[in-house]
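Fill in residues.
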């Protein structure tokens, strides 16, 4: 729940306040369907948006930011992918 509200109150903060480097790089690779991670971390609002996309049906900008339940589901899926990152080879050098 805190993740959702932090992203709403301070959307410009870097995601590194809640995710470590390896986590946000895996999120970047999953969200962009690539094996090369960016050098610049997401903002917390962008990270929550991508987590929300993992946790819910199609999302449009008019829907607003993802809710607590959608983020919770997305985090479950994200951490499952994160646990299997070596098997799926999401991030080559991390």
């Amino acid at each position: 729940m805190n993740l959702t509200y932090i992203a709403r109150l301070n959307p410009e903060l870097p995601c590194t306040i809640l995710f470590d480097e390896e986590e946000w790089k895996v999120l970047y690779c999953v969200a962009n369907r690539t094996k090369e991670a960016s050098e610049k971390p997401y903002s917390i609002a962008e990270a929550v948006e991508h987590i929300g996309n993992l946790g819910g049906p199609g999302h449009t900008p008019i829907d607003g930011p993802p809710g607590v339940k959608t983020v919770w589901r997305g985090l479950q899926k994200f951490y499952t992918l994160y646990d299997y990152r070596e098997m799926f080879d999401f991030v080559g050098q991390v």
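The chain has five helices and no strands.
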